[in-house]
Amino acid sequence: MVEKSIIRADEAAAMVRDGAVVHVGGFLGCGSPDMLLAALLASGKSNFTLVCNDTAIYDPKSGRTTGVAPLILGRRFRKVIVSHIGTNPETQRQMHAGELEVELVPQGTLAERIRAAGFGLGGILTPTGVGTEVEQGKQVLEVEGRRFLLELPLPGDVALIKARKADRAGNLVYSKTARNFNPLMATACSLVIAEVEEIVPIGALDPDQIHTPSIFVDYLVLSDGRPEGGSHA
Amino acid sequence: MPEYVENKEIIARHIARFFRTGHVVNLGIGLPTLVGNYVPPDVTVILQSENGLLGLGPAPAPGEEDKDLTNAGAQPVTLLPGGCFFDSATSFGIIRGGHVDFTVLGVLEVDQEGNLANYKIPGKMVPGMGGAMDLVAGSRHVIAATTHFEKSGASKLKRRCTLPLTAMHEVDYVVTDLGFFEVKEGRFVLNEYFDAYDPAWIIEHTDADIVVAPDCHRWEP
Questions:
Q1: Which segments in chain A show pLDDT lower than 50?
Q2: For residue B1, pLDDT beyond 90
Q3: Is the Cβ of B72 closer than 8 Å to some Cβ of chain A?
Q4: Which of A151, B2, B14, B38 is most exposed, with minimal Cβ within 10 Å?
Q5: pLDDT of residue A230
Q6: Domain that holds residue A44
Q7: Does residue B79 fall inside a structural domain?
Q8: Is B50 one of the catalytic residues?
Q9: What is the DSSP string of B96-118?
Q10: Is residue A38 part of a domain?
């Protein structure tokens, strides 16, 4: 098997160009690639389009942030394509001030649009959003008497994802609910960089238990504080 | 005439009675989450959480939280034995595919046509729909769980929603702190009423068409 390069987070951030469409895994910050996001913020680049479940959590009182929230605060996005912004008041503020374009997509539709991009589909038909604002500007198709919206694929330039464990080939295993959008995004972007907590030798993962096949992953970044091939928990 | 006092507990207690062993149930954030506290001990439901799990368990003991194990509101949770994890496409396949028996969610407005608004007040508050549009469109039964009145005193049950819709014609049941309604043929059918709120009082204080079911009766937890 071909081994994947293990790079540093700042090297990963250097591969993301200004204005790129960036898919970021995580659900309100659970399962988001925090080290890669910190490096992207530090890189100073901006004008990105974000594809993510949400804009994570920002609590103005305590200053606490999760996931992509520091990049929202740092105004690195031109547009966000997400299902939820309710836990980040700064996203709503920027949207109302006309500083940030927000496209709200139902969560299941978002997942399927990403999957469609990665799986070679021309789009998907979903009943979700029929009769709502989500229907506006979309083709409605009737199949066997039921109305569906045609939702188009949502590919990206770069996926920044997080997994629990990788082998050197780039096969990934996720942890619990930190999986969420990560495996879908790994299929849908030209460049896929996975932040992982542990990297094990080829052959050390049970092939039946792998969530993301190695061919979807381009680079591995090891999370802080965990030596390569560390614990095999 | 009764004085209205908000009562979320009676809503949660009433909704918990819908479930039978083996039902797959998704409980929304806030009031719907309370429903889980009142499921009878002899009923075992399988709770689904749209961020990717089946078999949602109680909150962990302090110090036992796992950063990789949360519910859709980002709170630490546990997984019951036999539970499992999956990605977001599978999670919404479960939801959209009709494999969830009941979804319980809060509303800003619900109307007598079964329309539901709960994700946006234009120009004011725009949290986004998250998984709500899929849950409402795909679940076998949709229960709207809500206090009957807004803080302003206006009824949340409407003839016609004025806010942007989360879904059209999908709500089956509405449980408020006044009573239990079924959405049927373009009207709310009052099946049960709570506390001292009798049908006449409920009709008088609700801005919607309500029909009283022939066997409508007072329900006590």
A1: 225-233
A2: no
A3: yes
A4: B2
A5: 34
A6: 5-122+156-218
A7: no
A8: yes
A9: HTT--SEEEE--SEEETTS-EE-
A10: yes
